[in-house]
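User: quick one
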Amino acid sequence: MTDTTSTVEQQLEITLRVNGVARTATAPARRLLSDFLRHDLRLTGTHVGCEHGVCGACTVLVDGQPMRSCLMFAVTAQDHEITTVEGLAPDAEQMSPVQQAFTECHGLQCGFCTPGFLTTITAYLQENPDPTEAEARECISGNLCRCTGYQNIVKSVLRAAEITHEREAGA
Amino acid sequence: MKPSPFVHHAPRSVAEAVAVLAEVGHDGKVLAGGQSLIPILNMRLAAPGHLVDINRVAGLDTVEVTDDAVRIGALVRHALLERHDGAFAANPLLRQALRNVAHPAIRNRGTTTGSIAHADPSGEMPAVLALTQGYVEAASAAGTREIAAADFFLGPLESCLTEGEMATGVRFGRFPAGTGTAFAESARRHGDYALAGVAAAVTLTDGVVTSVRASFVSVTPTPDVLDLTEAFAGREVADVDWVKAAEMARDHVDPDGDIHATADYRRMLAGVLTTRVLTEAAATALEGQSR
Ligand SMILES: Cc1cc2nc3c(=O)[nH]c(=O)nc-3n(C[C@H](O)[C@H](O)[C@H](O)COP(=O)(O)OP(=O)(O)OC[C@H]3O[C@@H](n4cnc5c(N)ncnc54)[C@H](O)[C@@H]3O)c2cc1C
Ligand code: FES
Ligand code: FES
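Assistant: Done. Structure below.
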């Protein structure tokens, strides 16, 4: 293409509902959802590892279901409800059950993979509130962690289920 | 890495989608779940100038079970089909195989039709489409056509869909009464692409074998079907030694070696898995008949 106008990239105004709030920014069509969240909306909790769907660090909830934000364009995510790790805690004072379980069980070391684990596990426990240890392993099998050897993450999944039940009983 | 620039099109109907595809020609690509396409774009292995994002096209997200088929629209995600009880009852092989397709986060987004259009010989669902003698439904500005699985896959990552054509859905066939099915694969981690995988269907009539068929994942260039009927038909199922089928499977497959496994190892796996799935499919068929 020699025409100079065609070298100027198409820019789109993209509005996303993230953690319950409508947010708008201008970005090119090729902006990945992960980069839109991090760079355009400054929600840097979502991490980016591999950018081809393997590591799971970028996992966010789309309409409550875990998906890879590096394998989705921000423009396609419009009209959907996005939940990032920043949106998991019920309020500023309290961590979510999965977050609390990770702190209690030392489910993280460097924390790079953690946002993807937290979103994945949060969605999983809604479907299966009482996982066995084998199910807890299966639930995290699509996420990679370079630090923990996974033992404490598996414990965190089981503890998060307990905390959820404790909070329900206490409420 | 990041994708190179493209123009994003968001058609609302199939007619609109195929009109854009006709206009942009070879510079256009259909974007469905993006679980195979976006990695390719991120790594700049492809740089189409136009993406026709079909995610907003109405009416493509339905599953219909008919007497002879399970028909799914092009936006049915793997996860939806996997959980669909009607589809499972009509053809249990769908759920048996879908459990092995990637991880849940990827199944939540990736479409079953997209994985067939992608024509990856390491995909589970192309092998299932072949084994069920299913069809791909395609639309272009010139009209619609349906393509039998046997004609659809031309080679690794190559289907007979032409420029300007999109798949609007696929139809998986159903097996005759008395059929048991099974799926098994070996992967380094559950959810990863299989080193080798086998789908099988065994049909019995009054405890006697009448049909035995298998198709393969990751060990053949296209998902062609190995028909073992001649070798086993007419025998009482209780007397069949399925270990014999392993040799036929090993002769049939044509695996490549890579960093994960040698060709010989994959060939061996294909044999072992064939024995396993045929044993399981035959047991299921027998159980179904005694009910
Ligand atoms: C980490 C990871 C692991 C995976 N593991 C597996 C696995 O074990 N087994 C497996 O089978 N798959 C696996 N996948 C791929 C996944 O199943 C994809 O969902 C699938 O291959 C493609 O479907 P899609 O809807 O995402 O298609 P897209 O990525 O959107 O498209 C893929 C290709 O098909 C074309 N296409 C898509 N839909 C249509 C249509 N309706 N008409 C015409 N062309 C179309 C596109 O143009 C593109 O060329 C994996 C993916 C990832 C990221
Ligand atoms: S960054 Fe998205 S899966 Fe690795
Ligand atoms: S805690 Fe470091 S990568 Fe998981």
